[in-house]
Specification:
The protein has about 290 residues and is of the alpha/beta class. The chain has seven helices and eleven strands.
C-alpha cells in the first residue's frame, strides 16, 4: 500500500476537523445575545439622597454594624434599580454619624446621645460605607459626584469624610469629590437646578424660598425646574411645596427610630430615595427603598 504524503495527511486532518466542527455547530444551539448599553444615558442625571443615617445610634439589638449594613444595603438596592445615567450625585445630607465627638452630646444643646461605638470607630465605618456606595455606583454610572454636608448632630464629620474621600479619589477622573463648603450643595443639569441642605434652618418655607432664589439667582436664570432637598425632621413631606418656583422635598431618616422618636410619636417610615432627572427638566423616575 503506497504511503501518504505529508500534504495528503494534512488535507485528511483538515477535512476531519472541519467535519467535526460542522457537526458540533449543527447540534449545539446558539447562546442568546445579551444586549447591554455601550454607555450610560447622558440625558439623565441620578441623585441619591443619604439623610440622617445616624450610624452611631444605639438601640436594642441595633448598633454600628447594623446601621452600616442598613445604609449600604439600601443604597445598593436603590443604585441597582435606578436608570443608568451619565452621572449620579451621592449626597450625604448630614447627621451621618449621630455623634460629633467622644463627648457623645449634640454640639449645641449638649443633649446626651445613646452611642454604640466611640467616635473614631464610627467615623472609620462611615468613611468605609461612603466608599462602598460610591464605588458600587461607579460600576453603573459614567461619573460619580459626591458631597458631604454637616448636620446638627455631626458638624465635624463632613470634614473628616471629605478629607478621606479627597485623598482616595485624587487621581480618579470619574469620581468628583465636591470640596466647596459643607452647608449646601447645588447642581445644574439641563433645565434642572438641584440644591441640598440638612434642613435645620429655622425659617418658614416662604422666606426660605425667597432666600434660595437670591442665593442661586444666576442658576435660576438658566434653569426652569428647582428642587430643594432636606432631611433633619425624620419624615417625608408627601406634598411638595411650590413657593417662588422652588419644590421643597423633605426626606425621611435612614436610621431606625430612636427613643426620642418613639417618645414623641415620630412614626415616619424609613425610606431611602434614588431620583433620576431628565435634562428637559423634572423627574424621570423615583426609586424608594423601604428600610425595615
Amino acid at each position: 500500500k503506497p504511503q501518504q504524503s505529508s500534504a495528503d495527511i494534512e488535507s485528511t486532518i483538515d477535512e476531519a476537523t472541519n467535519s467535526a466542527i460542522e457537526r458540533i455547530n449543527s447540534e449545539t444551539p446558539t447562546a442568546p445575545t445579551l444586549i447591554r448599553p455601550s454607555q450610560a444615558d447622558g440625558s439623565l442625571f441620578g441623585f441619591l439622597a443619604l439623610f440622617d443615617a445616624h450610624l452611631g445610634l444605639q438601640m436594642p439589638n441595633y448598633g454600628l454594624d447594623e446601621a452600616v449594613a442598613r445604609l449600604v444595603g439600601g443604597a445598593f438596592e436603590a443604585i441597582d434599580a435606578m436608570p443608568s445615567a451619565g452621572c449620579i450625585a451621592i449626597i450625604n445630607g448630614g447627621d451621618f454619624t449621630h455623634q460629633n465627638d467622644d463627648s457623645n452630646q449634640t454640639p449645641q444643646s449638649k443633649h446626651p446621645l445613646p452611642i454604640s461605638a466611640n467616635y473614631t470607630d464610627t467615623t472609620d465605618a462611615a468613611t468605609d460605607a461612603r466608599i462602598a456606595i460610591i464605588e458600587h455606583a461607579s460600576k453603573k454610572f459614567d461619573r460619580v459626584e459626591t458631597k458631604d454636608l454637616i448636620g446638627n448632630h455631626d458638624p465635624a464629620t463632613a470634614k473628616i469624610i471629605r478629607a478621606a474621600l479627597r485623598q482616595r479619589y485624587r487621581d480618579n477622573d470619574s469620581i468628583d469629590v465636591d470640596l466647596v463648603g459643607v452647608n449646601f450643595w447645588n447642581r445644574m443639569f439641563g433645565n434642572n437646578l438641584l440644591s441640598v441642605h440638612h434642613g435645620d434652618i429655622k425659617r418658614n418655607l416662604k422666606d426660605l424660598a425667597l432666600s434660595l432664589c437670591q442665593k442661586y439667582r444666576s442658576e435660576r436664570g438658566l434653569t426652569k425646574f428647582h428642587e430643594h432637598h432636606t432631611g433633619h425632621l425624620h419624615h417625608i413631606k408627601e406634598t411638595r411645596f411650590d413657593m417662588g418656583g422652588v419644590h421643597f422635598c423633605q426626606h425621611g431618616a435612614i436610621s431606625r427610630k430612636s427613643n426620642y422618636d418613639e417618645d414623641n410619636v415620630y412614626e415616619g417610615d424609613s425610606i431611602l430615595q434614588g431620583i433620576t432627572y431628565h435634562e428637559r427638566g423634572g423627574r424621570k423616575s423615583t426609586i424608594e427603598v423601604h428600610l425595615e
